[in-house]
Write a structure and sequence with these properties.
By secondary structure, this protein is α/β, with parallel strands linked by helices. The chain has eleven helices and 14 strands.
């Protein structure tokens, strides 16, 4: 099956700064594909190239078999976009924001009205229909932006940091809507620096750093490959490191914490308690953030 989005050698330079460095990826139809990484990794720049708002420097990018550089208008017609920033029109009501956007796509007024009402129901904003934007909470604004991105019934939905700054309840509501859209056959492309978000939503993902793709795969597969199911975590103290080295354990230092990797965490935790005389040893489930820390030495939220 032909990928719905395909990039080969995709590169973007801003003067001497290499924002996207010769990356390859293929996104399948009806999947949620994630770009995970810290701020400045190149995720948003990649999304802007896909959206045809920032021209690539070199390489190729095709969306539904269409060359994004040669036919940007045709590509844009396939997309719905949720940008990082809240760029709703503050002078309009919730409903008027949707109707104005429908007009940009040449959607007839009656059809636009019907779609707007359906979408407000979908994002649970029916009772806010006539409210002006400044009266909405942050979570409501993000839900409205999601509704706006769906007004043209896109085949592909681009979500750039869709839940940044939201409280857990609002974030989970957005996740619910994204999963619902995926079930309906919409291809979702997501950028995030929240490891839990990527784990919950993505079928496959890439982890980016400094413009490069450093690893790709499905979330659980990556955790199992690079970390295992569980991880041991202890305080970073000289005497602890000495004991770990004496017992030939595999570990990484991350600030004031030490992560110890083993296929038998409970056995090794017990050994640590006995031989190193530690007061506190934590065994926890491994995550995508551990994968990123291990591969780059950075946290996802820097």
């Amino acid at each position: 099956m032909m990928p719905v989005i395909s990039a080969k050698g995709l590169t973007k330079k801003f003067d001497d700064f290499l924002a996207v460095d010769n990356i390859d990826f293929n996104i399948r139809k009806k999947e949620c594909f994630g770009f995970l990484g810290p701020n400045g990794a190149g995720k948003t720049t990649t999304m802007r190239i896909i959206q045809c708002v920032s021209p690539k420097t070199s390489g190729s990018l095709k969306v539904n078999g269409i060359d994004a550089e040669e036919q940007p208008r045709e590509v844009k017609e396939l997309l719905g976009v949720v940008p990082q920033e809240n760029n709703l029109d503050p002078d309009f009501t919730v409903f008027k924001n949707l109707m104005t956007y429908a007009r940009y796509y040449g959607i007839p007024k009656r059809e636009g009205k019907s779609r707007a009402q359906e979408l407000l129901k979908f994002v649970q904003l029916e009772d806010k229909k006539n409210v002006i934007i400044e009266k909405l909470s942050s979570g409501m604004k993000r839900r409205l932006i999601l509704a706006r991105a769906l007004i043209n019934e896109p085949e592909i939905l681009i979500l750039d940091e869709p839940t940044t700054g939201l409280d857990p309840q609002a974030r989970h509501l957005i996740w619910e809507k994204i999963m619902s859209l995926k079930r309906e056959g919409v291809t979702v492309v997501l950028t995030t620096h929240y490891m839990e978000e990527a784990s919950q939503l993505c079928d496959r993902l890439v982890i980016m750093d400094l413009g490069k793709i450093i690893v790709k795969g499905d979330p659980q597969g990556l955790v199992q490959k690079y970390i295992g199911s569980e991880i041991i975590e202890v305080d970073n103290k000289p005497e602890t490191l000495t004991c770990i080295l004496e017992n030939k354990m595999s570990y990484e230092e991350f600030g004031d914490r030490v992560h110890i990797f083993t296929k038998e965490p409970k056995k090794f935790a017990s050994k640590l308690m006995q031989r190193c005389k530690l007061d506190k040893v934590i065994i926890r489930q491994a995550s995508l953030e551990d994968v990123f820390l291990t591969l780059t030495g950075k946290i996802l939220r820097d």
